[in-house]
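General statements about sequence and structure are easier to judge against a single worked case. In the encoding step, the backbone of a single protein was reduced to a row of integers, each denoting a local shape. The record that follows shows the chain in one-letter code together with its fold in token form.
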Amino acid sequence: SPVDGVHNHNNTCDYCQKIAWGKTRSEMYQRAGHFYCSTDCTRRHHQEMEAQEEEVDGNIDQGLEALMRQKQQRQKEKQLRGEDDTANNGTNGVNYNRKQFF
């Protein structure tokens, strides 16, 4: 059995998982730490990863929007209960009347 990587299955494409027969790992197409049997696999894998990244970014954006809506809803509920922090000059509802300290 050769030790150069041609037949020990270290030359498996990271995208299609096929063995790149006749090539060592160092002879395979390499990009961003991945090894590929062809330029087609290289292109397809990176397109797939970009699509996944866009999906994650979209999910993060949707999550942030949902959090902002929840925060706005809580602020509206506080206003209705008379607990609006913005309406009392940032004092959080505490009455800082000087007379009560003297």
Summary: Confidence is low (pLDDT under 50) at residues 1-8. DSSP finds one helix and two strands in the chain. Helices lie at 39-81.
